[in-house]
Design brief:
Length: 361
């Protein structure tokens, strides 16, 4: 993939500048631990909806899912179907209850603190056990996000992997430290908007460039019939496994804390509707990119880069930079949200447990 570096660099700098300005503004409204961990429970429905969606999806939405559809066709659709079902159930049956109970249970700021206060009181080890589980798995997930982001930067800007990794890590850690939860939520709203626009623009422009509408039957005939079948070679175990991905929504702390941070519990149905619309359209865009890539390219060495290939082939370099920023947004939004959950658990559920009179600072 070759494209001029200067336009990409300009768009990347602009993207980072917006993030840091938002983080700095948010830091001015962060005065105590509740503000830093949950934004003072004063987020609007619109911010909560896109922040939850962006921090959940990660880079797989713009890279792995289009790549899976590129390779497997319709069989890969079971995964987004499972995610939509799981997200809807999470918003419908857990969000409002969690928002109400976490405030009632000693104004719990984290999931481990809520479980401790809700079920076993102050002496419970449930909070510590939950914190350890979160730290182990989120550390692995964050590390994977860092690796993916560093590989992306090193490929586009001809950097060494370790330098790209250092730039990415510093970029994420600094704005998490500066702004806390409120900064992350505002930034995730911005990043979610970028992801959404990229996932709509790329397939629409590609359709016109390859003249899919005028040559629909000719173009679609290029792919084997199995590419259009929902269960050509998939077993029921495979289908259930893909649908099962949606169950993960019900226990992911970096999503659940978004519910806890909304200003009023009765605003959660509005947030759910916005998030579900964002999610369905984004997933459809990602799947469309995979199909269009399969129609346009006979082979790709790295199928998960199909969106980036289409962007380079059909867009101005500055728009390619915008799309690259959207991919980085997906990676950074998830990593930053999980980093904040980790640090919040350490501060509130471990440090504060043994230093109950510790200051807010």
């Amino acid at each position: 993939m070759q494209t001029p570096i200067l336009p990409l660099l300009i768009m990347l700098i602009l993207y980072l500048a917006i993030i840091y300005i938002v983080g700095f503004i948010a830091s001015k409204t962060t005065h105590n631990l509740s503000d830093y961990v949950l934004g003072g429970r004063r987020l609007s429905a619109l911010i909560v909806s896109l922040a939850a969606g962006a921090s959940d999806m990660s880079g797989w939405l713009l890279l792995a899912l289009p790549g899976a559809v590129f390779v497997s066709g319709m069989e890969a659709i079971w995964l987004p179907i499972g995610l939509v079902i799981g997200a809807f159930l999470n918003w419908t049956f857990i969000a409002k209850r969690l928002r109400i109970y976490t405030e009632a249970a000693n104004n719990s700021l984290t999931i481990p603190a809520f479980l401790k206060h809700r079920f076993q009181g102050q002496r419970s080890i449930l909070g510590i056990v939950t914190t350890v589980i979160i730290l182990i798995f989120f550390t692995i997930y964050v590390a994977a996000s860092f690796v993916g982001g560093a590989l992306l930067l090193s490929t586009f800007f001809n950097l060494s992997y370790h330098l790209a990794l250092l730039i990415l890590v510093l970029g994420i850690v600094v704005y998490v430290l500066i702004g806390g939860f409120l900064a992350l939520s505002w930034i995730d709203f911005f990043q979610g908007s970028l992801m959404f626009l990229a996932l709509l623009i790329v397939p629409i422009v590609t359709i016109f460039h390859i003249n899919l509408i005028g040559n629909f039957h000719h173009m679609t005939a290029k792919l084997p019939a199995s590419h259009w079948q929902l269960y050509h070679s998939a077993s029921w175990i495979f289908i259930l496994s893909m649908l099962g991905w949606g169950l993960g929504y019900c226990g992911q702390p970096h999503i659940l804390v978004r519910f806890m941070a909304i200003k009023k519990p009765n605003k959660l149905p509005v947030a759910r509707n916005i998030c579900m619309l964002w999610m369905i359209l984004s997933l459809c865009g990602a799947c469309a990119i995979g199909f269009l890539g399969a129609l346009h390219y006979s082979h790709l060495a790295k199928p998960d880069t199909v969106m980036l290939h289409l962007a380079i082939d059909f867009f101005n370099p500055f728009i390619v930079g915008f799309i690259l920023a959207a991919v980085l947004s997906a990676i950074m939004s998830t990593a930053s949200a999980q980093l904040l959950v980790n640090s919040s658990s350490i501060a509130e559920d471990i440090y504060h447990r043994y230093r109950p009179k510790a200051s807010q600072k």
